[in-house]
UniProtKB/TrEMBL annotation:
This is DUF2855 family protein. It comes from the Eukaryota. It comes from Suillus discolor. It holds the Pfam family DUF2855.
Length: 415
């Protein structure tokens, strides 16, 4: 059997990291003990994945160490990286006694047709884990493979699976970030939350959840303000999730007087030092406003040639620095989730997540984000090249597969 894997030159090689290639190699005939072979059906692709690629070799993140590029056609794991993707697949072979062929699974896969994964001993009915002892223990959420049959959030319809791949990795970050903010009463009663890269799914899901909290608490005083590029202003306003939206160029001339008054939290999804410095300077100069804290949540502005994000963004090597001064506070979901797991029962957390997910699935249809299904190796390569050239438009959400359209969706491919 032939495998196909989407790979990229590493930024440290002398090649262009944006030159994606689809590498052909053989699927192993026999698999080692305690392994599974998956057929990767399809996977979501958003700026989140471009960030994984950009930080593939960065010392804190090491995203290229989850799946390795094969040795084939002038490609090797020292010259090339594999960008992880969130996707669905089916187990076709297993040498683990507790995991069986035919199971539908969701996880942090390689953009490939087939994927061989080791399975650790702690298998339960909800999930199993890929052992990756070379990575820090806090990467455990990336090692979890969810067994769909017992997943309370799973809906097998093709559109529900597509929405899951697109929103699930981002929504839970936004969800637990909002829960964390709420646990401190929004850092002591902040009245305004400013969010950059406001057109991104991570940012607007956070805005959505803050609005939801406002309505649950009967509070109309906590306002959510978006910052975005000029070209994405119309989309971001149309979402109707922000109280106000400003563009990066002119926010400091618009966000003044009564509009600026209050206690502010800034949640940064761009990772752009220059923008963050302008935000801070602006609030320092505004008489009646206080910038309580700046939180690092994303890095939409890193590019594939970036090797390390700057420490000023909160993601660099000294990113542990607390709030205050010019440092960013870093929200790290696994850390907060482990605190919540001590405070709440598993069933309470499952219930919270189920309610939030069900509501998201019914609300997200009005946000004007359309699914774009891309099937086949040449088509996926072309779609990637288009993103490198044009960037990712917020109104388009990609689901990719290295298999042909009919195999993946049958006759339902066209939405
Ligand atoms: N902390 C975490 O654990 C965590 C978890 C999930 C996601 N994230 C991060 O959140 C960020 C957003 O991911 P997403 O998948 O939600 O994004 P998305 O929906 O694909 O966002 C698209 C938006 O990102 C901005 N953007 C895209 N490409 C860009 C480029 N080349 N240069 C500058 N801006 C660009 C634009 O927003 P604007 O015009 O509005 O700037 C664009 O509208 C990513 O950096 C991701 O890694 C972090």
């Amino acid at each position: 059997m032939e495998n196909l894997i989407l790979c990229h030159p590493r930024a440290s090689s002398s090649q262009d990291p944006n030159q994606a290639i689809i590498v052909k190699c053989e699927v192993p005939q026999t698999i080692p003990n305690n392994h599974v072979l998956l057929e990767v059906d399809r996977f979501g692709f958003s700026t989140n994945n471009m960030t994984y690629q950009a930080l593939g070799e960065a010392s804190h993140f090491r995203y290229f160490e989850f799946h390795h590029a094969p040795d084939a056609e002038g490609v090797s794991s020292t010259t090339h990286g594999v960008t992880p993707v969130w996707g669905f697949g089916t187990i076709i072979k297993s040498t683990h006694p507790k995991v069986h062929p035919g199971e539908r699974v969701y996880g942090y896969f390689a953009p490939a047709r087939y994927l061989l994964l080791a399975v650790s001993s702690n298998v339960n009915k909800y999930a199993f884990f890929v052992p990756r002892p070379h990575l820090p223990p806090d990467r455990r959420p990336y090692n979890q493979i969810t067994r769909c049959a017992e997943d309370p959030l799973y809906d097998p319809s093709p559109t529900a699976e597509d929405l899951t791949m697109l929103y699930r990795p981002l929504f839970w970050t936004s969800f637990w970030c909002e829960d964390w903010l709420n646990s401190s009463n929004y850092k002591g009663g902040s009245t305004h939350i400013l969010i950059s890269s406001a057109s991104s799914k991570t940012a607007f899901c956070l805005a959505y959840l803050i609005r939801r909290r406002n309505s649950l608490q009967g509070s109309s005083t906590r306002r959510v303000i978006g910052l975005t590029s000029k070209k994405n202003i119309a989309f971001t306003k149309r979402l109707a999730l922000y109280d106000d939206v400003f563009d990066y160029e002119s926010f400091d001339t618009s966000l003044v007087g009564d509009l600026a008054r209050g206690r502010w939290i800034y949640v940064d999804v761009t990772g752009n030092d220059a923008l963050n410095a302008r935000v801070r300077d602006h609030f320092r100069a505004c008489g009646d406003s206080e910038l309580v804290t700046c939180i690092a949540l994303g890095l939409t502005n890193v590019s594939a040639s970036t090797t390390e994000p700057s420490s000023a963004t909160g993601w660099g090597s000294d990113s542990e620095a607390p709030q205050g001064g010019d440092k960013m506070e870093h929200f790290f979901m696994p850390e907060w989730l482990s605190i919540r797991k001590q405070q709440l029962s598993v069933s309470a957390i499952t219930q919270m997540q189920k309610e939030a997910w069900t509501r998201l699935m019914s609300d997200c249809g009005t946000w004007g984000v359309s699914l774009r299904r891309v099937c086949g190796p040449d088509q996926v390569k072309a779609a990637y090249e288009e993103i490198v050239k044009r960037g990712l438009a917020p109104e388009e959400a990609f689901v990719w597969s290295l298999w042909g359209e009919t195999r993946v969706y049958g006759s339902t491919a066209k939405l």
